[in-house]
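Tutorial, part two.
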Amino acid sequence: MRVLLIFLSIFSITVFPVTWSDALAFDPAKVKKLINSRKCVSCDLKNADLKNANIPGAFLQGAKLQGANLTKAKLNKAKLYKTDLTAANLTGADLSFANMEQTNLGNSNLAGAKMSNTYLDQANLGGCNLKGADLRKAYMVGAFLKNADLSEADLRGATLFGANILGVNFTSTNLEGARWRNGKVCAPGSIGKCIIVE
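Running the prediction step on this input gives:
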């Protein structure tokens, strides 16, 4: 019996070698389908390589994109409602006018991303790198921004009503005309902090 178990163990290792990287690999067929159809609802694209992908208006509601590489991807007007983008790389991505309500972007890299007029209501942006991001007129009602880096970002006219901004880095951030978390509008000259004129 012991000899049989040893034989089966060796057989399974030799015939079906599975590595940890294989378990984490994405399915290239799903990526191809997304590029062609611009639709992948609730699909699993963890760790997918979508660098420079040109998929404006893509329908990705509920998709799992944890750890995906979306550097400089064109996702303007995309439907990303309740999508999981935890720890994804979205450096320089175009997400303008995208619907990202209740999306999980925790610890993602969004440095230099284009996010003007993007809907981020109740989204998780905790620990995100948003340095230099364009967030003009973005909607972030009730968003979780704890410990995010918004240094040098452009938030002119953005809505932060009810957002959690504990520990956020606002160094050199342009907040002119932004609706602050208390509902009041930041006055001209609000660079690095919201100046509220009573």
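Residues 3-24 have pLDDT under 50 and may be disordered. In part three we will examine how such features are distributed along the chain.
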